[in-house]
Amino acid sequence: MEANAGMVAGSHKRNEFVMIRHEGEAGPKPLKNLNGQVCQICGDTVGLTVTGDVFVACNECAFPVCRPCYEYERKDGNQSCPQCKTRYKRHKGSPRVEGDDEEDDVDDLDNEFNGTQGNGKAVHQWQLQGHGEDVDLSSSSRHEPQQRIPRLTNGQQVSGEIPDATPDRHSIRSPSSGYVDPNQPVPVRIVDPSKDLNSYGLGSVDWKERVEGWKLKQDKNMMQMTNKYTDGKGDIEGTGSNGEDLQMADDARQPLSRIVPIPSNQLNLYRLVIILRLIILCFFFQYRITHPVQDAYPLWLTSVICEIWFALSWLLDQFPKWYPINRETYLDRLALRYDREGEPSQLAPIDIFVSTVDPMKEPPLITANTVLSILAVDYPVDKVSCYVSDDGSAMLTFEALSETAEFARKWVPFCKKHNIEPRAPEFYFAQKIDYLKDKIQPSFVKERRAMKREYEEFKVRINALVAKAQKTPEEGWTMQDGTPWPGNNPRDHPGMIQVFLGHSGGLDTDGNELPRLVYVSREKRPGFQHHKKAGAMNALIRVSAVLTNGAYLLNVDCDHYFNNSKALREGMCFMMDPALGKKTCYVQFPQRFDGIDLHDRYANRNIVFFDINLKGLDGIQGPVYVGTGCCFNRQALYGYDPVLTEADLEPNIVFKSCCGSRKKGKTGNKSYIDKKRQAKRTESTIPIFNMEDMEEGVEAYEDERSLLMSQKSLEKRFGQSPIFIASTFMEQGGIPPSTNPASLLKEAIHVISCGYEDKTEWGKEIGWIYGSVTEDILTGFKMHARGWISIYCMPPRPAFKGSAPINLSDRLNQVLRWALGSIEILLSRHCPIWYGYSGRLKLLERVAYINTIVYPITSIPLIAYCVLPAICLLTGKFIIPEISNYAGMWFILLFISIFATGILELRWSGVGIEDWWRNEQFWVIGGTSAHLFAVFQGLLKVLAGIDTNFTVTSKASDDDGDFAELYVFKWTSLLIPPTTVLVMNLVGMVAGVSYAINSGYQSWGPLFGKLFFSIWVIVHLYPFLKGLLGRTNRTPTIVIVWSILLASIFSLLWVRIDPFTSPTQKAATVGQCGINC
Question: Is the pLDDT of residue 56 over 60?
Fold first, then answer.
């Protein structure tokens, strides 16, 4: 994998593999629609028939298979094509096998029933013709001149970035010599599902030695420190103070993190108030249900139903916060154990994913800053790889990334030399701080000014590309060498891969290596379901496994840059911890945002969720996955079960209450669970085999039937890529040593083809899970259901920062997308209410997941409850009867308990009162708008099949002044319901006060109760009202017209129906007043 060698594009299904070179490069021109002439089973040439045509085994898909493999498949195999599974038909010269159709037009009596003589002659002739050096083997040679596929490296040796393959280390290789002819196409081997795996070399590797070698490597530091020192006999080999070094050895054995518990005086009081609030709620509902309001029974019944739902919603939200914890990491211990100075780093390799779709909504400059912060991260450069997924196949994104790679050669050494933070240049130079603080190098000021000039020039080049991309040419975009851009049609284009940075050509201005930077755009064709972001992430999993195969993955959105250069080390403190790493599926970091207005009008920071809810979940089974800023264990994404201890196997509270605790037998002292138990298929997982079996070495491979599934099963689960399947066995990451590096790029094109996932477990049991626009919730839920835990990491300096939509309409559309995803999960088979009870999901964790999917339904009782005060004011009725002092006490205690719970949460979490209040306000704003629309859209999508479009949230920078975007009005139908609620309550308040003035002082008492609830609604919707008015206090006419129209119609209907006045009362009123009343 050589940097800057050219773009690779192709389609596995169409058998295309094209290399597009940069301008000025030597070498042959790229070719299109080049058909392979290499047998996909044995790697040998396909050969020609007696008539001189290319041998075609399968007439349905023309899958390249040579004559000997074709004969073997028909005689001893499954007699079908490995790709399309169509039964092979008999060709002339082939012996007849059982099951062949009767062929009247084939006259081949000499060879029809002769399996040796005639066939041997044909095979011999094939060998003579197929191995000639100058024979044209292309399937297209009958129609066009012979041409060869140019090699990516232009005939040069492949970069040493990926381990070289040698003949004695091949397990998946061509049967010929280890030399790869640069003029010949790269062979990609497809393993025959019916054959024994050992015959291909996969089983010939001594797994026990490899696993034991890995164990020895992990314990290397411990052994060195143990053997290095004697029993207190002073200094050894000039290492200095023996006591200090022994202290270092002791530190290396310490845990890499610790749990910092919440002070008991705060937590116990918090739990006590929760219990008291629950008791008060019971008495409150006992009073409300037993004291109906007879003259306003519909209003009373509606209010009671709404209040019961609010109580259930509170329970779902409250009890997952029963065990909140904080965590602390020890980066110095991580360095002592895995990254000592003067020794090769033993930190695990990490692949970082950046996802982007539309460069018009996600500006390339923001994506470039994210990539630059990744390339400058404080981690060994040979263990970091950055993959940028362009799911919109935009040439603008490609060119911007090319510019970013060039600027990184200057930016990365500057960051590491002066240890600056953050390492995204846009946000570093925008800081209003003393940048000379803690900088002692005299050259810093001069170099900083020079770097700022370089960055300004870089911005000019990026902005010029953006301006150029505003108008697409009629003939489509063209690359610098005149080649049409392969992604001109974003819905129909081949897969594209470009290696910008790497070991070969990836050096900075100081001559040091840079992390790998790879551009990826997966193939898209009409008629295929591409699954939006989840499908793009799964494509990145596969292509990264083929090219670099980092043991861990970290995904960020294109607008979330590394604010802390040590973020990867923070995550490794948990992932590489001997106690936690084997059962941790991911480490979630909180989201923090730049560019939000001072008062956070629309609760964009979401502080309550990130600093209260996720801390509470961290004490149970871990936080939910929030879609970005998350470091994954690759093995967890592959659908493996975790390695659990006996303590982890204790039954959950539901199982204990029903069946009692488990009695420990002779196996009670085992540190890991029994492999037969772990190998059982459950509803929540269908693992290939267990990670514990890999630990146990060769014993896990002796029982082939139970622990080593057939190649056919592996392909059914992971897809037909032997290189990718081999990479899944590498628990500690890295490319399998037997891999042929020349075949990697072609295999990478294969695994991102649009039909690769067909009839596999991708999106069902492995990778990002499909079925919802909020794929993050589903993916995390499936992992937790298998028994994995997750970790919430909150370093003192935020690990990542991003941008959020501060405009009201954009914010509501973002919330609508999240709520719609929750409704989709609620109506799917993966709903936490009924899914995964045979797994190891803890009860409170399940309650938290249920809360994440049912919260949009709260919008229905919420909007009804917000309309009730206006109705009460307009009709003179009320939802509560005249209450006694005893009943009033429960109302007062309920309000006190609500405020006490909130205050105590703020106390142990450190969240400010303003953030809490903004969260409460936006809960009402979102509930009366976006959540309500999500419920109906979700029902239409699931029940009627009416799909809604996925809209990317705009992440445009604020170029028109401070928070100018905050005051921009964008029309959306989401604004109508809350505006109507506001107008109705304002009209109701005017009507109620007018009625009280006309009726005398005795009506003011009941009025205050009604006004209190109406004011409660208006105060919660106040940020929404400010958003409507904007900076100039002008509301668009369409909003005013719709709101007044709906409010007027509702009020007129209410007056006409008059449901609270009985016919008898109406008659009495008419009879009392008469016609002249």
Answer: yes
- Single out the residue of 121, 116, 138, 131 nearest to residue 56, CA to CA: 138
CB 61 within 8 A of CB 68: no
Residues recorded for the chain: 1077
Measured in degrees and rounded to the nearest 5, phi and psi for residue 930 equal -65, -45
Statement: residue 663 has pLDDT above 70: no
* 355 known member of a binding site: yes
CB 752 within 8 A of CB 736: no
Distances (CA, A) of 670 to 582, 640, 647: 16, 21, 10
Catalytic residue among 618, 693, 776, 810: 776
382/676: higher pLDDT: 382
* Alpha-carbon gap, residue 604 to 595, rounded angstroms: 10
Is 666 annotated for ligand binding?
no
**Could you tell me what percent of the chain has a pLDDT over 70?**
68
- Indicate whether 288 pLDDT > 70: yes
C-alpha span between 879 and 871 (Å, rounded): 10
533 is in an annotated binding site: yes
Amino acid occupying residue 41: I
Inter-residue contact 925 to 1021 (CB < 8 Å): yes
206 is catalytic: no
Q: Are the CB atoms for 846 and 924 separated by under 8 Å?
A: no
Phi, psi of 328 (to 5 degrees): -135, 135
- pLDDT tens, residue by residue, 236-278: 343 444 555 555 556 657 888 999 989 988 899 999 999 999 9
pLDDT at 725 over 70: yes
- The rounded distance, in Å, linking the Cα atoms of 592 and 607 is 9
Per the annotation, the verdict on 618 as an active-site residue is no
Q: Residue 587 carries which DSSP code? A: E
Q: Is it the case that residue 347 has pLDDT exceeding 80? A: yes
User: Structure tokens of 913?
Assistant: 């009162």
Annotation-wise, does 219 bind a ligand? no
Are 642 and 787 contacting, i.e. CB atoms less than 8 angstroms apart? yes
> CA nearest 776: which of 818, 714, 826?
818
1046-1075: average pLDDT: 58
Spatial separation of the C-alpha atoms in residues 736 and 730, rounded to whole Å: 7
3-state secondary structure of 326: strand
User: CA angle at residue 972 from 968 to 975, to 5 degrees?
Assistant: 90
CB contact set of 992 (below 8 Å; sequence gap of 6+): 873, 874, 1007, 1010, 1011, 1014
Angle at 307 between CA 304 and CA 311, to 5 degrees: 140
- Rounded-to-integer distance, Cα 792 and Cα 805, Å: 25
User: pLDDT tens digits for 790-808?
Assistant: 999 999 999 999 888 877 8
Structure tokens that stand for 818 in this block: 């999240």
Q: Is the Cα dihedral 571, 576, 579, 582 positive or negative?
A: positive
Distance CA 578, CA 254 (A): 10
What number of CA atoms fall less than 13 Å from residue 878's CA on the CB side? 17
Of the candidates 169, 322, 183, 153, the residue with the CA atom closest to the CA atom of residue 726 = 169
Note the pLDDT tens digit of each residue in 390-443.
988 889 999 999 999 999 999 999 999 888 889 999 999 988 777 666 666 777
- Residue 422 preceded by cis peptide, ω within 30: yes
| Count of C-beta atoms within a 10 Å radius of residue 55 | 23
Distances in Å between the Cα of 496 and the Cα atoms of 367, 479, 516, 857 are: 19, 14, 17, 42
Are the C-beta atoms of 985 and 1017 separated by less than 8 Å?
Answer: yes
Condensed to tens digits (0 to 9), the pLDDT of residues 169-185 reads 333 333 333 344 444 44
Q: Are 353 and 391 in contact (CB under 8 A)?
A: no
Pick the catalytic residue from 44, 391, 577, 915: 391
Residue 1000, C-beta contacts closer than 8 angstroms, at least 6 positions apart: none
The answer on whether 195 is annotated among ligand-binding residues is: no
Backbone angles phi, psi at 386, to 5 degrees: -110, 125
Please give the pLDDT value at position 32. Answer: 36
Please report the pLDDT score of residue 204 as a whole number: 40
